[in-house]
Amino acid sequence: MRTASVVESGIQTTVQDYPGRRGMLAQGFFPAGPMDHFAHRAANLLVGNPDSAATLEITLGAFRLTLDGDAAVAVCGAEAPLAIDGEEAAIWESHEVPAGSEIALGIAPGPGFRLYLAVDGGFDVPPLFGSRATYTMGALGGFEGRPLHSGDGLPLGEPGANGAGRRLRAAARPAYSREWEIRAMRGPQAAPDFLTEADMETLFSRKWPVDRNSNRTGVRLESHRFEWARRSGGIAGGHPSNILDNSYPPGAININGDLPVILGPDGPTAGGFVVAATVVHADLWKIGQLRPVGDTVRFREISIDEAIEAERALVETLSESSVEER
Amino acid sequence: MTERTIKSMLPGTFYRRPDPQSDPYVSEGDEVKPGDVVGLVEIMKSFHEILSDAEGRVARFLVENEALVDAGQDIIALEPT
């Protein structure tokens, strides 16, 4: 069995799989999984893995790994210097990596914040409730329920067909920016019952700065005094953002008092604040690429039909037709 | 000669002290050597140390305490000892 050894861990590197730990909301598990599902899936596609194979989610970079067996490796996500045994290598491509090689990632200067490293066969940590994803809030899943440290040894799965020498066509790669547009649908708690139409216009027009304390739990934006359609939350609490506790969807734009927070893959399953809008699944990957200092988000409202069409287009992009031989 | 600088490798909030009651890690005029902690950066609800990668004397701080810094930004200017 091949093993990958962590030499330098970066600020937060976790094992993640897609779609994460689904069907467990009632037990208090948000799905975990890659914060950028697009880059995770693209990296797997390039090395010939299914979407469900576990990759490493590397925050910002400064990460090094050695492999004790031959492998095909691809890194997708934020542009960052990648070297294999000291030789410069491109991201969004799969590479043949001989046994004993070191894979080294420098710091991503931006735009973008996270990178996904896939190895053919995937990272074969023990599944928990059907998933290898690390749930940082619950400290479970992945590798011992925690981000990786230097010295950790990760077992690799059996490789399939060799996936080296492939790259994602330029047209299939998503555009990264410091000013992001993210598509969202209104609700479940929007105007006129909870917020005013003017509030919804503010939500969908403002350039929201991303706060430094954003992480896999949620992306905090900037406080804003909304008008609100109600004077208070009634029996649910004094502030009009309060509602009786209800379940939250991943990608919820949760208004916590005056603070909008986009709930990430390790977020809370339930709570007592309104969800004014919800990021559509086809754009949910973008929250993994928001840099916590200096990036802004503008939400664009779309309909459910547009959201379904966007999802269909994304699935088509993440297919063999987007891969070319190098 | 060109002045050396110590950079933050992380984006986040820069702090000169380990906590509000403590003295700053380093002040102007102090000598630092490679590996010395010269500040903290807060990001994603956790704190990371900024280490000096050079030897020298702290000439001045290029950012204020609690300022937002980006990855690769110069934090401290060093002069030769």
How would you concisely characterize the structure shown here?
The complex is a heterodimer of chains A (326) and B (81). Chain A has helices at residues 37-47, 197-203, 281-284, 304-317, and strands spanning 3-8, 13-16, 55-59, 61-67, 71-77, 82-84, 87-89, 94-97, 102-107, 114-119, 153-155, 166-168, 179-186, 208-209, 218-220, 242-247, 252-256, 259-263, 270-279, 296-301, 323-325. With 326 residues, chain A is mainly beta.
Report what the structure shows.
- The complex is a heterodimer of chains A (326) and B (81).
- Chain A has 326 residues and is mostly beta strands.
- Chain A has two domains: 3-168, no CATH class; 179-317, Cyclophilin.
- Chain A has four helices and 21 strands.
- Chain A has helices spanning 37-47, 197-203, 281-284, 304-317, and strands spanning 3-8, 13-16, 55-59, 61-67, 71-77, 82-84, 87-89, 94-97, 102-107, 114-119, 153-155, 166-168, 179-186, 208-209, 218-220, 242-247, 252-256, 259-263, 270-279, 296-301, 323-325.
- In chain A, the strands form four sheets. In chain A, strands 13, 14, 15, 16, 17, 18, 19 and 20 form an eight-stranded mixed β-sheet that branches.
- In chain A, β6 and β7 (87-89) form a beta hairpin.
- The longest helix of chain A is centred in the C-terminal third of the chain and has 14 residues, at 304-317.
- Chain A starts with a strand and ends with a strand.
- The model of chain A has no long low-confidence stretch (mean pLDDT 96).
- The model of chain B has no long low-confidence stretch (mean pLDDT 93).
- The two termini of chain B are 13 Å apart.
- Chain B is an all-beta fold.
- In chain B, 0% of the residues lie in helices and 46% in strands.
- Chain B has a single domain (4-79), classed as RNA polymerase II/Efflux pump adaptor protein, barrel-sandwich hybrid domain (OB fold (Dihydrolipoamide Acetyltransferase, E2P)).
- In chain B, β4 and β5 (46-51) form a beta hairpin.
- Chain B is built from no helices and eight strands.
- Classes of the chains: A mainly beta (326), B mainly beta (81).
- Chain A binds chain B through residues 11-12, 59-60, 62, 107-110, 212-215, 291-294, and chain B through 9-13, 42-46, 48, 68-72.
